[in-house]
Amino acid sequence: MAESPETEHPVKAFGWAARDTSGVFSPFKFSRRETGEHDVQFKVLYCGVCHSDLHMVKNEWGMTHYPIVPGHEIVGEVTEVGSKVKKVKVGDKVGVGCLVGACRECGQCADNLENYCPKQILTYSFPDVDGTLTYGGYSNLMVANEHFIIRWPENLPLDIGAPLLCAGITTYSPLRYFGLDKPGLKVGIVGLGGLGHVAVKFAKAFGTKVTVISTSLSKKEEAISKLGADEFLVSRDQEQMQAAAGTLDGIIDTVSAAHPIIPLLSLLKPHGKLVLVGAPEKPLELPAFPLIQGRKIVAGTTMGGIKETQEMIDFAAKHNVLPDVEMIPIDYINTAMERLLKSDVKYRFVIDIAKSLKPEEDCHRRSC
């Protein structure tokens, strides 16, 4: 008989988990591996709530293993390091993003692109090398190989900064890779949610002229006055869209719901790039003519590798790029997921793990 999550490994841990496709969370006792010679153990202080967490707990992408402890925007303080660890020491502030493993040998890994390694290990609900499941940051502690640990800058707040480990790198990476990081370029950002608002901040920090593209006029004031966007387009307003045709060098599309992309292609200059970072469940319609008539590119990208994630965190600290967050206790997570489904958050929930995750004894009394 297979061991229970609580006894698979020697280090006792606890958090909140969903057990089935209802996505309902409750307290959960499990275990983590001992700190190996190249491992770092840290106390989780804060963890961001990503839209991917919502998809995963309901198994909407068909890849979830239950029970699932989500969370891949994890920050905390190092409590133990392995004998060969050189990257950090006890007491250091650190983070873990979307990855906790990769083969470290393939061409992608050699190019610091562990995020495209065919043997990558995701931070939660993914088979680890020993066959057990990975569990994420809705929990009291983490153990990860030092290679996948991000060193946290002293001047970057842990709580507000946590979502940078997914929302930040997912938008920073395409801006850099596709050359949309040059002062004076005109960049469109589609959607003003958890990813979109961070994309606006990074694009502005690079010195670009930013146009927010949204279905809702109600977001215009916030986009321009608070986030610093230069222009705002209502994608359902045909006159506005026609007037802006051929004006943008590139677009980062952060929307994870099904939506038309042909109108977005019309906004691009010749040689323009539309980069998808959202992950709609249904295929997008993509006719050939809008592409071939302007040598336009439709591309996709996921989070960056570890080296680039560290670069992004350091850039954010230097340029004061910080997400807008709403702090919540862990026992609010079910309500938070309901609100996230309705886009009722500006713009990212962050769980105050250290203050709100009850000690193990209490977890035991509540029948984890």
UniProtKB/TrEMBL annotation:
Question: Which keywords, in A-to-Z order, does the entry hold?
Answer: Metal-binding, NADP, Oxidoreductase, Zinc
- EC number in record: 1.1.1.183
The family database entries (PROSITE patterns) matched by this protein are listed as: ADH_ZINC
Per its UniProt record, the required cofactor names are: Zn(2+)
- Keyword Lipid metabolism: yes or no? no
| Broad EC category | oxidoreductase
Identify the SMART domains for this entry.
PKS_ER (SM00829)
Name the Gene3D superfamilies for this protein: Medium-chain alcohol dehydrogenases, catalytic domain (3.90.180.10), NAD(P)-binding Rossmann-like Domain (3.40.50.720)
Task: Cite the Enoyl reductase (ER) domain residue spans from the record.
Answer: 23-351
Source superkingdom? Eukaryota
List the Gene Ontology MF annotations in alphabetical order.
geraniol dehydrogenase activity; zinc ion binding
Q: Which SUPFAM superfamilies did the record assign?
A: GroES-like (SSF50129), NAD(P)-binding Rossmann-fold domains (SSF51735)
Q: What protein family is recorded?
A: Belongs to the zinc-containing alcohol dehydrogenase family.
- The protein here is known as Alcohol dehydrogenase, class V
**Species of origin:** Handroanthus impetiginosus
